[in-house]
Amino acid sequence: MALLDITDLQLSMKSYEGETQILHGINLKIERGEIWGMVGETGSGKSLTGLSVSRLISTPPGRYLAGSIQFQGKDLLKTSDREMRALRGRHIGMIFQDPTTNLNPVFRIGTQLVDVALHAGRTDPSVLGLSAGASRRDFKAAARKTAIEALESVGIPDAASRIDDYPHQFSGGMRQRVLIAMAMIGKPDLLIADEPTTALDVSVQAQILRLIHELVAERNIGVLLITHNLGVVAQICSHVAVMYRGRILEAGPVLDVLKRPSHAYTQALLESVPTVHTRRGELRGLSGLSPEMFV
Amino acid sequence: MTAESQIVIPARDRSSRRENWGRAFYRFRQSWLSVVGLAIVLALIVLAVAAPYIVPHPEHALGVTNTAARFQPPSAAAWFGTNELGQDIFSLVLIGSQVSLFSGLAVVVIAIVVGTTIGAIAGYFGGWIDEVLMRITDLLLTIPSLILAMAVAAALGTGVFNMIVAIAITWWPAYARLVRGEVIGKKEEQFVVAAHALGAGWVRILSRHILPNIVSPIVVKASLDMGFAILTVASLGFVGIGVKPPTPEWGTLLSGARSYMPDYWWTAVAPGMAIFLAVFAFNLLGDGLRDVLDPKARR
Amino acid sequence: MVSFILRRLLLMIATLIGLTLLLFVVARILPGDPVGLAAGPNATAATIAQLREQFGFDQPLPMQYWTYLTGLLQGDWGTSVFTRRPVFSDILAYLPATLELVFAALFLAIVIGIPLGLLTAVYRNGVLDYATRTLALGGIAMPRFFLGLLLQLAFAAWLGWLPLAGRFPFIEIPPETVTGFYTVDALIAGDMYAFRIAAAHLALPAIAMALSPLATIMRMMRASTIEILQQDYVMTERALGLSNRLILFKYVLKNAMTSTLTVIGLYVSWLLGGTVLVETVFDWPGLGLYATQAILTQDFMPVIGVTLVIAIIYLLTMLVVDVLYGVFNPKVRYA
């Protein structure tokens, strides 16, 4: 049984102009220990795929036309809201693009971390190192301890005192670490990272990617890393799926796909990546591609 | 892509200004509440203008009494009933709309003229002029406006004009603040700098280049304020300062009716509903105008 | 923070001194003859001159102002020409009634308006949303005094559930004064009978005053909640499994409060300045009626006094609002 098995996922969205199909049958299988990179242009549906796994797309305006999302053998599209909430934070962690807007600015980071820890602990007390019958006070104390450990594990120095700081007292890279700590605090089996490094500068990007890589090695989790940056994929992903207009054009181990792209779009995508050998004026873009050309 | 598809440039038969108006009107119509507001406002204006010709008992608004018909409940003859003097309340309320609408409008206009002048000068010149003008403005803003208006109106003596002046004194500071902020914002814009470079004087720059560009927020505030100005006029009437009988004014009518509650409740309901309706309509209209003229403030 | 508050208090004193000067000058520019009115129509010129001397009106204006200003600091806020009573003690006597009314109205507006704003934002475009929004539009346009009359008609005259007017019946014994708020004092004294009487009298005027702030607070809260709900961090909080209730009443509420706070602060002044309307309807013995009486006799010492008190409360409220800003938004620096 795969950790995550998406089959033929079809999603449409309703807007004022009518209903548009966004996802045209996504198939994807993620095992523990794998880091799947999902690449594609803006609007290709990669973020919506990620949000679908956490079932964070409101229906309506969204509507699933077909398909299933099996997580540890359970179809997420058929789970109740209550069960789904128990999975979030505990079994499925998520981090998003912009660390400056994803932390609630008016709360200490500890407040938010502790609340997530408490939520995960309520679902499974072992996350906090407690047994089922533990008292409220034990829960609170354990949640705070777990939160500090989580901050330490993502490399926040002096975590025990910084836990009482507000988001604006952290740098962008540090905030993304805090968000990763928050996503990992419930010891999830699957981490969905939606453009986790896009808003960061290059040196910080590398640190964050290394951190995610270490977490996978250490805890044997599966990762779905959504990005538009092929460089990121080449750096840390074990597998890659290339998305275009709501379809996965090509998927497989990262070396196979990047070395021997079988699809014209992937080739074009790879050619548009600038390298040190790219001369001035040679920067390529992808223009005017209609889906019919590839599908 | 097929061969038949051609790019067709639509013929422009309307000027861009008219197009803008069309678009604004479309946006205004999107919200049916603002259309309702506009309709009520227009109806009120028409009624106020036509009132002397259509009321059943114009003489009652001049102080004529008919004690034989005191406290008649609403009926086909007297739609809103009659009051303690036997006067037809429908006639009084209808004529009263003239005072309310006129004084509301006058208050807002005076407040705009005074406030805009002071705010524009403060914002344009800055420095100590700004300091002095704004300190005075802020001081006035800390005074409860209703009490100030009451005190000034009482000291000036009764009468519509005195009441208008008294309320306007408390209303201009808000416009001064608004205009000052807008002027400071526009002062640095390229077209103002250009006008300055061409040698235009400050009066010309303010009146020809800056003020026309800040009309929208003033209009929005004014339309919202119309309702509250009418409310303030009625409030003064209600506490017994302001327009005195026999001139019918909604607040004064309501104040008189209070003594005959609860038995003759209709004497209060008609003027009260009139105030409510007028304020309500101008609020709706103002909300709608804000959506059209000030898209940034849209929620 | 302490230095911020101290600086603001100093600024406040400067503002108040400026305000007394402004009021003093305005009171003298305006036509009106308080002494003549107080002395009555049959007074001789000599009596009037004597009265003017007694109240110091024969002194030059700067001299009069100086006397007033130095007196203010010693708790002498002047004397009413009409009643010959000291203004300060009169204000102290009337203030609690007004404040009780204002606080009760504000309490109602906040306790109902904030949750309603949150809920209508969540269930946007639902039945509750449309119903409350329409009511809110009406609530803002409803004159307080007319609403008061309607409430009297419905709940006092027709249903007979609540008293028509007044603050406390003369035949009953009011609770011992601690705060001056009858409801609070009755609770302190443990006198439930008196509390019920006080609360019954308070209910209608408080509702009449509360409707407009309630509607505004609700609209403000709804608008800012809708904005906050679209923020990225709300998505993160949902994605990590926090319950909707926790997100709404803890994480969203605190963010949405900042803009609503300003509105609440401004309403304190609006309510204080407008109590006169509701006090007139309900014969509520407060500052508003006191001020009206003074205004009608052009007795300006009490008017200046009432204005000063309201300005002081207004400035203090804005200070509290600014301090609370820091509580709700840690990014605020007290500079």
UniProtKB/TrEMBL annotation, chain A:
It is a peripheral membrane protein. Gene3D superfamilies: P-loop containing nucleotide triphosphate hydrolases (3.40.50.300). CDD domains: ABC_NikE_OppD_transporters. SUPFAM superfamilies: P-loop containing nucleoside triphosphate hydrolases. Keywords: ATP-binding, Cell membrane, Membrane, Nucleotide-binding, Transport. Residues 4-270 form the ABC transporter domain. GO terms for cellular component: plasma membrane. SMART domains: AAA. One of its GO terms (molecular function) is ATP hydrolysis activity. Pfam families: ABC_tran, oligo_HPY. GO terms for biological process: peptide transport; transmembrane transport. Its main location: membrane. It is found in: Cell inner membrane. It comes from the Bacteria. Belongs to the ABC transporter superfamily. This is ABC transporter ATP-binding protein. It comes from Neoaquamicrobium microcysteis. The lineage of its organism: Bacteria, Pseudomonadati, Pseudomonadota, Alphaproteobacteria, Hyphomicrobiales.
TrEMBL record, chain B:
Belongs to the binding-protein-dependent transport system permease family. One of its GO terms (biological process) is peptide transport. The lineage of its organism: Bacteria, Pseudomonadati, Pseudomonadota, Alphaproteobacteria, Hyphomicrobiales. This is ABC transporter permease. The chain crosses the membrane at residues 32-55, 101-125, 146-171, 223-244, 264-286. Residues 101-286 form the ABC transmembrane type-1 domain. Keywords: Cell membrane, Membrane, Peptide transport, Protein transport, Transmembrane, Transmembrane helix, Transport. SUPFAM superfamilies: MetI-like.
UniProtKB/TrEMBL annotation, chain C:
The keyword Transmembrane applies. The chain crosses the membrane at residues 9-30, 101-123, 135-161, 193-215, 260-282, 302-328. Residues 95-325 form the ABC transmembrane type-1 domain. Keywords: Cell membrane, Membrane, Transmembrane, Transmembrane helix, Transport. Pfam families: BPD_transp_1 (PF00528), BPD_transp_1_N (PF19300). Coiled coil: none annotated. It is found in: Cell membrane. Gene3D superfamilies: MetI-like. This is ABC transporter permease. The lineage of its organism: Bacteria, Pseudomonadati, Pseudomonadota, Alphaproteobacteria, Hyphomicrobiales.
